[in-house]
Design goal:
Layout: E1 4-6, E2 12-16, E3 23-27, H1 29-44, E4 48-51, H2 52-56, H3 60-67, E5 74-76, E6 85-90, E7 101-102, E8 108-109
Parallel strand pairs: 1-4
Antiparallel strand pairs: 2-3, 4-6, 5-6, 7-8
């Protein structure tokens, strides 16, 4: 099972490694919290944990449709943070509510 955590906020981007053999990485508190959310998803048996700040960053006309697939907002303790954070969790992935979707490349997916 693939699990992930999503948080929203500033990050520091940097290129690591030698020219032609390096990679780009993101660091900072936002990334650390997203990593903690992934741990929380695993412990809860969920596939995703998403911060309310990430949901708030979604365009208003899409927010309700996306939020419908997640549980209700709930405060959770996050390792390394003094205060609880409000998150939503998704327990499983399935086909979108409206059936198959078409991506820019034109391939229908579920």
């Amino acid at each position: 099972i693939i699990r992930f955590g999503v948080n929203y906020g500033p990050v520091a981007m940097s290129r690591l490694g030698a020219a032609g053999h390096g990679h780009i990485t993101a660091t900072g508190d936002t990334v650390n919290v997203a990593s903690r959310f992934q741990e929380i998803a695993k412990a809860a048996g969920a596939v995703a944990t998403v911060s309310e700040s990430a949901f708030a960053a979604v365009a208003p006309e899409r927010r309700a449709a996306i939020a419908a697939g997640y549980g209700a907002p709930q405060p959770i303790a996050v390792r390394g943070r003094a205060d609880a954070m409000v998150v939503r969790m998704k327990t499983a992935f399935g086909p979108p509510a409206g059936g198959p979707t078409t991506h820019a490349a034109g391939a229908a997916t579920r």
